[in-house]
Amino acid sequence: MMPLALLLGLTLGTGLVLAFAAMLPAAPLRLDTALHQITTRTAETSDPRLFTDRLASRAARARHPWLGLPTADLDLLERTQQQYLAQRVRGTALGTATGAGVGLLGPITGVPPTPTVILGVVGGAGLGGMLPYFQLRDAAARRREDYRRVLAVYLDLVAQERNAGRAATPALREAAELTEHPFFLRIRATVAQAHRLGHTPWDAVRDLGDRLRLPELAEVADLADTAADGAAIATSLHTKAASLRHAALATDTADAHSRSERLTLPTSLLMLAFLGLVLYPTVAQLLTT
């Protein structure tokens, strides 16, 4: 009971302190101090010795995927390394606190407090630190699947631009300007930057596909490169778009089948429970006679 009382006392004391702090009047604002803090924070933001920057430099050298930086997924989701690492640090801290709180409740069940606290802290820290990694990986997989579906539309638009007599570079640029989808915005920005720097747009699109781990986009760049040599690629673009749609349809079909298979066990259990409720009076009467 002592750990539980201690935990409740700490919670009550924290609540009283926060309530007392909320009732205090706001401190007067000093302009010179505020300007000094803003200047200091601006200088610290660009300082590479920040904790997240040091952590990012160490994670970049890690070889294990769980400890390293998933740069392709971060680029795909347009997140920074510092945001990802800060999320993992917060998850680790929250998991550690949760595990410690659960471990303190061990004596209630008759388990010694020290092993439960140690296991709770280690397990909570591990789960809290790994949860952002799995969330990022799943979000990146969903985003790649969405981009593959949108890429089929983009290929048809590029083919239409080519049939209208436009060259490869204007076809890539104007096809990306027809909608405000995030993937189209990425392609549009990539082609525009390549045009400003004097680079070929298909090389920039190929580099974008390599960074995002979208080999289909790199294949589009290869087709555009052949179009720059005078080859007619409209048919190839339509064929590639059709293959992407078939792949998306096959993925949806497989997902629907897997969902149906996962429903088999709950449905069977419900049927058995219903039969048990229906047959229970008869079985009970037979057993009592």
Q: Can you describe what's shown?
A:
The structure is a single chain. The protein is 81% helix and 0% strand. Residues 40-46 have low confidence and may be disordered. The two termini are 51 Å apart. It has helices spanning 2-23, 31-45, 51-60, 71-77, 81-104, 113-163, 168-176, 182-197, 201-212, 215-228, 234-262, 264-288. By secondary structure, it is mainly alpha-helical. It is built from twelve helices and no strands.
- Indicate the proportion of strand residues: under 5%
Q: Work out the helicity level.
A: over 70%
Number of strands: 0
Mean pLDDT: 76
> Taking Cα atoms only, what radius of gyration do you get, to the nearest Å?
29 Å
Indicate the low-confidence ranges by residue numbers: 40-46
Descriptive key words:
289 residues; mainly alpha; 12 helices; flat
Could you write a compact summary of the structure shown?
Helices cover 81% and strands 0% of the residues. The protein is built from twelve helices and no strands.
SSE blueprint:
Elements: H1 2-23, H2 31-45, H3 51-60, H4 71-77, H5 81-104, H6 113-163, H7 168-176, H8 182-197, H9 201-212, H10 215-228, H11 234-262, H12 264-288
Helix pairs in contact: 3-5, 4-6, 5-6, 6-7, 6-11, 7-8, 8-9, 9-10
